Amino acid sequence: MKKIIAYICVFLGLLAMFISQESITNRIWQWNNIHVNSNAFFGKHSYEGGGLSGMAYLDDVKLFNDTKNFTFKKPIDNNIKNIDLYLFGDSFTEDIPDSAFCNTDYFTYNNYTKTLNYDLDKTKINILIIEVSERLIFERYNNYIIFERLKKDSLSITPKLKKKYEVNTTLQIRNTVKNPYSQMMNKNLEYILFDYNFINWVKRLKADMNYYLFNRATGSAVISNNKQFLFYKPTIDPQSTNCIYRQISNKEVNGIVTVLNEIYSHYLNEGFSEVYFSIIPDPAAILQPENYNNLVPQIYNNKLLKMPVLDVYSLFFKQDNPQILFRHGDTHWNNNGMQIWLQLVNDELRKISSSKK
What we know:
357 residues; alpha/beta; two-stranded antiparallel ribbon
């Protein structure tokens, strides 16, 4: 009997390792997404009120349940549309439509996980904006293999392709040694086995008890010092590479700047009129700045940096009431924060458009 139980345990362990592979988990995720916005028995817990409040099961707390409230207005462009704008970004900018940018005749956006092909129109001003959230800087730009891959891949470009190039191969970091099993095995298993509506009440009860009795959040969320926001735990955990309070060396900053300079030089050579880099500061860096390592200003103020920046960090930092810039239960900005970034971008686009008439 003991052998049978042992065999069963081994089988279940191997099965758990198999289904925790990223590819398997993604297939299950896609299947379960059918029920995201429903009350289906096997439906997946929805994060519409905020990614962190959803992960922490605190979306029933009114303070942390704030949905996206973006509004987009057509900016003034003086009827000059001589810019082709390419935006390579992440979840901060994925909702912005082409109508939100001034002086643009053509606009395309691609998330860093996808491919952005470009075919530059030499009669236009071709602008590339590379946007990244602060907590992902080290993950994407602190590895020189990015540019090594870029140079290798660029050798295969022929005139017939015009200027089509896969931007994501430039900016996306992948491990040189591929592990068939996800590094997030525990999270994947928890999702597959327990993330269903019929059992979510248990998690919410536990989360509410932690919050109301002990003033704590569960999972990857941490309550801010002023009790008004949820922060993503890796951004304030000193043991994490993404921690905004971790001391960073000049060597680390210079390494990022070196990669940015290589990327900048490459895209100018590809025919872009200008390439900009824009870091969206982490909410904790603005809302809880004590002991902040100043990663963003260190990159921007580095004397070696050649790429021009769209510095929304300074604008956020100068705000009298920075709490109006971010969602309370999410890692992202709200409409107020996004509008400041859009105004910054459009002011620059207007300058470029007027100077090249």
